[in-house]
Specification:
Residues 5-58 form the Acetyl-coenzyme A synthetase N-terminal domain. By secondary structure, the chain is of the alpha/beta class. It is built from 19 helices and 32 strands. The chain folds into two domains: 4-480, ANL, N-terminal domain (Rossmann fold), CATH 3.40.50.12780; 503-629, 2-Layer Sandwich (GMP Synthetase, Chain A, domain 3), CATH 3.30.300. Strand 18 (330-333), helix 13 and strand 19 form a beta-alpha-beta unit. Helix 7 (145-155) crosses helix 8 (176-185) and helix 13 (335-342) crosses helix 14 (369-379). The structure holds adenosine monophosphate. Adenosine monophosphate is lined by residues 241-242, 287, 363-367, 385-390, 413, 478, 480, 492, 495.
């Protein structure tokens, strides 16, 4: 029997043979001459000389066998619309979009920036770009002008594709004014803007620059646009990483390596088969959306569900209603969405027929044990944590149920995935850590196919940022803390850049958060390290309670704070005890659900919280300030 560990070992011992085999999962116009070129580390080139096309593999290739199968199902609970596109219809729409982009002057290698809500045209635009060899850069629809302008200036797109508006929680969010402002701020604005008018918000149009997609769609009619066969390492897209200050980092993805990596992951990790349905609740603006709303399921000949809406509208059963209605087999979400559901009536979880669903995959942030066990028992399906980053494009650590059904360990995403030579190393020396000893999660080069090939336009930054963190040798740093147990299962303990140092003791915020989250009153918690004149840093905990009434009076708050401190004392030791616990109704997060730790930290330390363009709910910081004073 093949085991996960054996497949992993083989992928590292003989990567050429392993990946040559996986490369057969996709169509190549010209096969590669060399599987891997690592003559210029850390720059890896996969399937050198091979020519392929992502759009061909995601769409055209399936026309022979599954032209009438739904390829893309769009559901918007925001606009109350549902629409399904078969592979044949998707092919036609992508051709139209590709013809429009060509008509607007986009050529192979040109960038196209996509600033769109979760509507089918966004997916058409992505696929149309890869069809003609243009490089897309999707910017999350909720980003505001300054972030958008920075990305425009870095990617220098020939065309921006956008829409009048998005909608969130029933509230229309006009995009066009944000885009206009971004174009005004940008040093290098594009000549053309292609606009999808959803009829949600009025748009002012700039003559000569702003073009109407529907009018162009009519004009190009049924034009067929051939796929451009690209050398495997030609860039397919740029995706900017969120969260850090300064100039955004454009993660550059290749073409052939990405297609092979995703196709392989669809079988080995996600157990998705042609004809199955996948529902990933992420957004196309994030890497999870790129890989597992758009490319992964389509490469595998599956039906993908594109959902515009929240997990609690019109009610907290909506995700499960969609599972029932579309007979979803593979679902992918984020712990944050599950924690939102945790605060709702659990009856919603058993109201619908979930018999089609095999597994629920969760990624993007640490999956805390209470949330994992809660959702697993609530829906009665295996929950598969998987750990990865924008940079890698697909999971680094996960249980690989398509290879072997290994038991999960709560709190661990599982074992290293084939292709990744994951090491836990000492931050100072680079020496490998023993089981049980905490270190940095690092990856020995070369990174497997599909991972970032460089930082867009800045090879030096790629090397400096990711490959220069250890004194002994060049190695990729994930900037995450981790630990390996005796069985080889890995546990992620938070970002190395969010480390707490309390009186010389290094503590992971994640460890403290897990401990606090085990208190029955707590729904969600964030822990940050804040400056302390005596101990260097102390931990501050910001909690959302399951029942806000538990902290109604100052006496209640004090009592609960004491209980929580005791919980931490008991589980981790007094050294990890937060110096303060404050209670809020919402945590400051990005729209992708990432905690804005630095902003929390800054406010707690009385500093300017800095760039807040990505914040989901600006009132969360004000609430936090108030709670701190209270
Ligand atoms: P992003 O590039 O925005 O997807 O963020 C990647 C980071 O999110 C990683 O470096 C981790 O810090 C965190 N992350 C993603 N998935 C997981 C997971 N399954 N468990 C723990 N942390 C995760």
């Amino acid at each position: 029997m093949t085991t996960t560990r054996a497949v992993h070992a083989r992928s590292l011992v003989d990567p050429d043979a392993f990946w040559a085999e996986q490369a057969r999962r996709i169509d190549w116009q010209t096969p590669c001459e060399q599987v891997l070129d690592y003559s210029r580390p850390p720059f890896a080139r996969w399937f050198v000389g091979g020519r392929t096309n992502l759009c061909h593999n995601a769409v055209d290739r399936h026309l022979a066998k599954r032209a009438e199968q739904p390829a893309l199902v769009h559901v918007s609970t925001e606009t109350d619309q549902r629409r399904s596109y078969s592979y044949r219809e998707l092919h036609a729409e992508v051709n139209r979009m590709a013809a429009v982009l060509l008509a607007l002057g986009v050529r192979q290698g040109d960038r196209v920036l996509i600033y769109m809500p979760m509507i089918p045209e966004a997916v058409f635009a992505m696929l149309a770009c890869t069809r003609i060899g243009a490089v897309h850069s999707v910017v999350f629809g909720g980003f505001a002008s300054v972030s958008l302008a920075a990305r425009i200036d870095d990617a220098r797109p020939r065309v921006v594709v956008s829409a009048d508006a998005g909608s969130r929680g029933g509230k229309v969010v006009p995009y066009k004014p944000l885009l206009d402002e971004a174009l005004r701020l940008a040093q290098n604005p594009p000549e053309k803007v292609l606009l999808v008018d959803r009829g949600l918000a009025p748009m002012e149009r700039t003559p000569g620059r702003d073009e109407d997609y529907l009018a162009w769609r009519e004009r190009v009619g049924g034009t067929q646009v051939p796929c451009e066969w690209l050398e495997s390492s030609a860039p397919s897209y740029i995706l900017y990483t969120s969260g850090t200050t300064g100039k955004p980092k454009g993660v550059q993805r290749d073409t052939g390596g990405y297609a092979v990596a995703l196709a392989t992951s669809m079988e080995y990790i996600f157990c998705g088969k042609p004809g199955d349905t996948m529902f990933c609740t992420s957004d196309i603006g994030w890497v999870v959306g790129h890989s597992y709303i758009v490319y992964g399921p389509l490469l595998a000949g599956m039906t993908t569900v594109l959902y515009e809406g929240t997990p609690v509208r019109p009610d907290a059963g909506i995700l499960w209603q969609l599972v029932e209605q579309y007979r979803v087999n593979v679902m992918f979400s984020a712990p944050t969405a599950i924690r939102v559901l945790k605060k709702q009536d659990p009856a919603w979880l058993t109201r619908y027929d979930l018999s089609s669903l095999r597994m629920l995959f969760l990624a993007g942030e640490p999956l805390d044990e209470p949330t994992a066990s809660w959702i697993q028992s609530a829906i009665g399906k295996p929950v598969v944590d998987n750990y990865w980053q924008t940079e890698t494009g697909w999971p680094i650590i996960a249980l690989q149920h398509g290879i072997e059904a290994l038991p999960a360990k709560l709190g661990s995403p599982g074992l290293p995935v084939y292709g990744y030579d994951v090491r836990i190393v000492d931050e100072q020396t680079g020496a490998e850590c023993a089981p049980g000893q905490k270190g940095v999660v690092a990856i020995e080069g070369p990174l497997p196919p599909g991972c970032m090939s460089t930082v867009w336009g800045d090879d030096e930054r790629f090397v400096k940022t990711y490959w220069s963190g250890f004194p002994d040798r060049q190695r990729y740093s994930t900037f995450d803390w981790g630990v390996r147990d005796e069985d080889g299962y890995l546990f992620i303990l938070g970002r190395t850049d969010d480390v707490l140092n309390v009186a010389g003791h290094r503590l992971g915020t994640r460890e403290i958060e897990e401990s606090i989250a085990s208190h029955p009153a707590v729904a969600e918690v964030a822990v940050v390290g804040i400056a302390d004149p005596l101990k260097g840093q102390v931990a501050l905990a910001v909690c959302i309670l399951r029942d806000a009434g538990r902290a109604a009076t100052p006496q209640d708050r004090m009592a609960l704070e004491g209980e929580i401190m005791q919980t931490v004392d008991r589980q981790l030791g007094a050294v990890a005890r937060p110096s303060r616990v404050v209670f809020v109704g919402a945590l400051p997060k990005t729209r992708s659900g990432k905690l804005l730790r630095r902003a929390i930290q800054a406010v707690a330390e009385g500093r300017d919280p800095g760039d807040l363009t990505t914040i989901e709910d600006p009132s969360a910081l004000a609430q936090f300030r108030e709670a701190l004073q209270g």
